[in-house]
Amino acid sequence: MTVGKAYGFLQYSGKNRDLVRAFPAIVKRENFPQSCTFSLLEIAAFKTEDSALARLVEEARECDRTHILEGSIDNSSNRKAAMFVGDIFNGVYMTLFNQGDPFSAEIVYQRAGRYVFRRK
Question: Would you say 57 and 67 are in contact if contact means Cβ atoms under 8 Å apart?
Fold first, then answer.
């Protein structure tokens, strides 16, 4: 079985508990397939054995990203998982940010053995 995976890096200056509280409602509102799973962590708590991903996480941390969102979906592509992570980030913006507030986030996924940034 193929599992699509993607990772999003988010800068959120509000209270962590506000983001954590809002997260389940955002996921539910987006009506994702049941095979989608998401994990939201403070970036300092994220651990991986993947050295390429670890470098990206470190770069994100250096750019003041505070959280990482890991999204996965069974029987799908990494690119599709990245699209779903983007949908979550749109929900985060709509829920926790005021219109016009700066919003910084990036999404990466593996393609042909290398991590690439999601572009619209």
Answer: no
